[in-house]
Specification:
The protein is an alpha+beta fold and 165 residues long. It is built from three helices and ten strands. The strands form four sheets. A four-stranded antiparallel β-sheet has the order 1-2-3-10, covered by helices on one side. The radius of gyration is 32 Å and the shape is flat. The relative contact order is 0.11.
């Protein structure tokens, strides 16, 4: 350090200079933060306009889709165009499950659905294969036992889904 301070006045001047530079830095950061927020706000407005336009276009495609002869399958209807495919997935009912609650039941009543590891875990994929929905009730396909009363197991309607691929 060749140029060191030799007086208290010079040292005090440097302290004031540092404070001014730190204040200036805070001021620049404040300006930048305000500009960033303003840009984010403008971006949000633009994105919302675009999302609204996309939704309007999807609504038009859905209305068009309802007027054409579609390819049918068990789970969906589809119509192919040059730029993509319009797909309407049919409404379904899915089984909603809470593994921790069902595990308690399975541990006592159906051990074949319990995977033993260091901790017990419900083997949902195996359990699900044996389930069926019959007249709004969940039923074991192999035993015919009605399982809708098991805590953590219920039905949920899934509405139709219109998609563009």
């Amino acid at each position: 350090m060749e140029n060191y301070i030799i007086s208290e006045v010079a040292a005090d001047d440097l302290i004031m200079g540092i404070r001014k530079m730190q204040d200036e830095k805070k001021r620049f950061e404040s300006i930048a933060t305000q500009q960033i927020q303003a840009i984010k706000d403008r971006l949000e407005v633009k994105n919302q306009l675009l999302e609204d336009a996309v939704q309007f276009s999807k609504d038009q495609l859905r209305a068009f889709f309802l007027t054409v002869d579609k390819k049918q399958s068990k789970t969906q209807e589809s119509y192919s165009l040059l730029s993509g495919k319009l797909i309407m997935k049919k409404p379904t009912i899915k089984i909603v499950h809470d593994d921790s609650k069902i595990l308690k039941w399975a541990s006592e009543n159906a051990k074949e659905y319990v995977k033993e590891t260091l901790t017990s875990k419900l083997d949902w994929s195996t359990f699900k294969k044996d389930l069926d929905i019959d007249n709004g009730m969940i039923v074991n396909k192999t035993t015919g036992e009605e399982l809708s009363t098991i805590e953590g197991l219920s039905l949920e309607e899934v509405g139709e889904i219109f998609d563009i691929k």
